[in-house]
Amino acid sequence: MAKNLQSVRGMRDILPDQSSSWQFIEDTARKLFNSYGYKELRTPIIEPTELFKRSIGDATDIIEKEMYSFEDRNGDSLTLRPEGTAGCVRAGMQHGLLHNKQQRIWYIGPMFRHERPQKGRYRGFYQAGIETYGIATPDIDAEVIAIAARFWKLLGFKNVHLEINSLGSNEARQSYREVLIEYFSAHHDQLDEDSQRRLHKNPLRILDTKNPKMKELVSNAPDLLDYLDEESKNHFEELKQRLDKMGIAYQVNSRLVRGIDYYNRTVFEWITDDLGAQGTICAGGRYDGLVKQLGGRETPACGFGIGLDRLQLLVEEQGLDQSNNNPHFYLVMAGKDAELTGVTLAESLRNTIPSLRLLSNGGAGSFKTQLKRADNSRADYALILGENEVDEGNITIKPLRNKLAISEQQSISQTELNEFISTVLDLDY
Ligand code: ATP
Ligand code: MG
Q1: Which residue out of 108, 125, 157 has the highest number of ligand 1 atoms within 8 Å of its CB and is therefore the one to mutate?
Q2: How far is CA 292 from the centre of its chain?
Q3: How far is the C-alpha of 66 from the C-alpha of 309, rounded, in Å?
Q4: Residues near ligand 1 with C-beta < 6 Å?
Q5: Which phi and psi (to 5°) does residue 320 adopt?
Q6: d(CA 107, CA 33)
Q7: Distance from the CA of 264 to the center of ligand 1, in angstroms?
Q8: Whose CA is nearest to atom 28 of ligand 1?
Q9: HEC string of 157-205?
Q10: What pTM did the predictor assign?
Q11: Residues with CB under 5 A from ligand 2 (ion)
């Protein structure tokens, strides 16, 4: 027998019964970003491979081992986007959104990285992010962080903490780099293979290692904050001052460098204690050099990316999604006449009550079958049109669950249905 087709390893289906928590998270994100005056930018999920190579940096996990790259039929090398920032910058430059302007934008969508799948880490996953362009001052770093803080509040998260750091200017990082190379070279035998390879290419990345055996070596390394330039120091101080004013708690973590090369000055991560090793739910910072690096003009930029799969795990585990998409009513129709009456009634209800979730029986079936379907649909009530009801111009309402506004089955005139249902919706939801 032919082997059943399966999804690609690490790429998940989100099933109809799981999508409610996703919608809760995404709807909240969209409303939140819009409420700060940000606008959505949608870019293709496939970009030229070159774009990511030139922006993310050679000695990074993404470029070294995680990209889904392929040749298309023209022989061009394309890549499924591993993150959202590079595409935003590309689109911003291509459409002249960045030059001499401020921009505040957001995105939501799928990303792809070839990683070892585990809880909170997938090969196909979703990120939401914001990006700001044209604002060099720390007020925008603070705003970006505040938007994330508000997101956790709206979702009802507890146990999320903020870590911040400053990577300084390019020059400051350059001199710190030399110091780091010297330090790690002196302990060469303690470096794992990845770190040995990165020693001269990108020594800061060694600080971001996930290898527990290197913890001590990394924690004794020289401190980045001691090498900050004066301007970056002030920028960092002003950011902290603003966070204090907004009542946003943070820890300064001088080992925080982020896994992508384009960052300078502010970097930050929001981390939860409730997801084990995959605890970072949001990561971002300033990337003033990227636009120029990709061929545009010098443009200050700051943003973050949020791992929505990890948010969804938290929402699920902590029971934070109070909404559901189950139907309020299931319309049972016994016989052709009832179906014709039913279709008219159902459409009229939908015309007048836009928030109504009404599932109409399809494919006929006996009363018993239809009521069973009603129950399986998890609707709260059945609306029943049988032969009697059609003859008498009535409709029967049958509660399918406990604790509803209507606890007894009852029949009303079809002409009263609209008003009746509006009242029920008000009482129950
Ligand atoms: P990690 O250290 O966990 O690999 P990262 O530094 O590679 O994270 P970023 O590139 O900063 O992650 O992406 C921002 C956020 O996107 C992460 O904090 C995380 O929440 C989420 N994320 C990244 N990779 C994955 C993945 N493979 N599956 C699910 N979520 C992911
Ligand atoms: Mg990673």
Answers
A1: 125
A2: 27
A3: 18
A4: 83, 113, 115, 120-122, 125, 127, 259-260, 278, 280-281, 283, 305, 307, 309-310
A5: -90, -15
A6: 9
A7: 19
A8: 121
A9: CCCEEEEEEECCCHHHHHHHHHHHHHHHHHCHHHCCHHHHHHHHHCHHH
A10: 0.93
A11: 61
Q: What is the Cα–Cα distance from 261 to 290, expressed in whole angstroms?
A: 9
Judge contact between 180 and 188, C-beta under 8 A: no
- Ligand 2 centroid distance, CA of 259 (Å): 7
Encoded tokens for 300 = 């200050």
Q: Using the 8-state DSSP alphabet, how is residue 65 labeled?
A: I
List pLDDT tens digits, range 406-416: 899 999 999 99
Instruction: Tell me how far apart the alpha carbons of residues 403 and 302 are, in angstroms, rounded to a whole number.
Output: 49
CA–CA gap between residue 284 and residue 303 (Å, rounded): 6
Which pLDDT does position 2 carry in this prediction? Answer: 66
Enter the tokens of residue 149. 């803080």
Q: Which amino acid is at 23?
A: Q
Look at strands 358-360 and 329-333 and give their pairing. Answer: parallel
Unique residue bearing structure tokens 């139907």:
327
Q: Residue for token digits 């406990």?
A: 402
Torsion of CA 209, 210, 216, 218, to 10 degrees: 20
- Tens-of-pLDDT digits for all 429 residues of the chain? 568 899 999 999 999 988 999 999 999 999 999 999 999 999 999 999 999 999 998 888 899 999 999 999 999 999 999 999 999 999 999 999 998 999 999 999 999 999 999 999 999 999 999 999 999 999 999 999 999 999 999 999 999 999 999 999 988 988 999 999 999 999 999 999 989 998 998 898 899 888 999 989 999 999 989 999 999 999 999 999 999 999 999 999 999 988 677 889 999 999 999 998 889 999 999 999 999 999 999 999 999 999 999 999 999 999 898 888 899 999 999 999 999 999 999 999 999 999 999 999 999 999 999 999 999 999 999 999 999 999 999 999 999 998 888 899 999 999 999 999 999 998 878
Tokens of 187: 């302990």
> Would you call 211 helix, strand, or coil by DSSP?
coil
Record the tokens describing residue 188, joined without a space: 């060469």
Determine the 3-state secondary structure of 356 from DSSP.
coil
Nearest CA to ligand 1 atom 26: 121
